[in-house]
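Predict the holo structure. Ligand: 2-phosphoglycolic acid.
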Amino acid sequence: MRKKIVAGNWKMNTTLQEGIALANDLKNALAGKTPKCDVVVCTPYISVAAVAETVKGSVIGVGAEDCSANEKGAFTGEVSASMVASTGAKYCILGHSERRQYHGEDNALLIKKLNLALANGLTPIFCVGEVKEEREANTFKSVIEGQMAAVYTLSAADFAKVVIAYEPVWAIGTGLTATSAQAQEVHASIRASIAAKYDKATAENTSILYGGSCKGSNAPELFAQPDIDGGLIGGAALKAADFMQIIEAWK
Ligand code: PGA
């Protein structure tokens, strides 16, 4: 059975101290509770290790927001997948639309990152999604299929370790959410595409998260869709109480 997951993406919003405080708030909010989903926080590199230490022993999993496409060496400013894993982190967001947009990340680069993340035991949270013009031109399904081609280079065994996140770029940080029907349509088409590429069991076992202005008020309806297995949360992951509302949307 595929996992239900609520994952936070803190982006570039938290200092080290703010990150530790947020992790502590979330840990305290979850104390004594048994969430009906896996809970993950992906933090800036600067706080991954401290957050991993802060939440040790809790149900919270930790991840980075990216990793280098290179294994090791003279890559000033980069952080490798093995360095991320060395903190105790278990996840790594890859291919977020902000990386694609501002850093020109393409499939060739993302294939390298995927392989390094997997080789270091990290679960990639691989993001796909169309921009507004592609939604309007009704080309979004082929755009997403083109982005999925990067993960489709993986063996079935490796693909089984990947979490997919569908994030329509026009809904990220804009307050515009895809309707639950729009999101469900894309999630179902991604799942059908995975079944065609691998097999039905692989598709059924893949967690596909929705991201883009997901919050406590719309999470229940989104998560009620048959092919939506959770959320990748930006803005609403920056306050423990807001993030808890989304976690608790899984009843
Ligand atoms: P948002 O961001 O929830 O602030 O829209 C989601 C994301 O970009 O992962």
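The pocket of 2-phosphoglycolic acid is lined by residues 9, 167, 172-173, 211-214, 232-236 (CB under 6 Å). Residues 52 and 135 are 38 Å apart (CA to CA).
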